[in-house]
Amino acid sequence: MISQPNRHCTVELQALPSRIGQVRRIVSAQLRYWHLDPLIDRAALGVTELLTNVHLHAQPDKVCTVEIELLLDRLTVSVHDHDPRLPELQVADPTATGGRGLAMVAAVSESWGVRPDGESGKVVWFTLPAPSPAVAAPVLAPYDTLREPTLRHAVDPLDGHRTEHAPARSAVVG
């Protein structure tokens, strides 16, 4: 189930590897829709790590909810699950194949944390600074400085007459 009121998106899922990839794509698409493309990689990495932790550690089930919310200049990504045990940031052995998820979330985010959610669950969250709308929008030249292209004159090689040609224009938008 996906709800999208304004600048809020919620996805409920079972944290299985195939679903984690789907949620990563949903988060990426939502951030593109909000014109927050610079945040996509960090948000996708963070949500992947949090969902992987649910898949590997959460008890009694793998059901969770992912929320992304944009308030002013802050994007918050949170994962709610039904396991009351709170995760702790650990220092992984250099040869270990796991145990770096929360450290990666901490490294790519502005802030992160965990809080109990009632008696039978928790919320793990992270924030990313969102560019202000003025920064995110392209900068356009003022109207009075825009100029129409001038016509070019050429001589037609077949008949020697002078012709006027408009400048070439791209058919590709953007």
Topology, element by element:
Layout: E1 2-3, E2 8-14, H1 17-33, H2 40-57, E3 63-71, E4 74-81, H3 101-108, E5 111-116, E6 122-129, H4 133-136, E7 152-155, E8 162-165
Antiparallel strand pairs: 1-2, 2-3, 3-4, 4-6, 5-6, 7-8
Helix pairs in contact: 1-2, 2-3
Strand content: 25-35%
Q: What helical percentage do the residues reach?
A: 25-40%
Instruction: Please tally the β strands and state the result.
Output: 8
Strand order of the largest sheet: 1-2-3-4-6-5
Q: What's the overall average pLDDT, rounded? A: 80
Class from helix and strand fractions = alpha+beta
Question: Rg, please?
Answer: 25 Å
> What's the N-to-C terminus distance?
34 Å
Uncertain segments: 1-5, 134-155, 163-174
Reading the helices and strands in chain order gives EEHHEEHEEHEE
Compute the number of helices: 4
Major sheet summary line: 6 strands, antiparallel
Overall, the morphology is globular
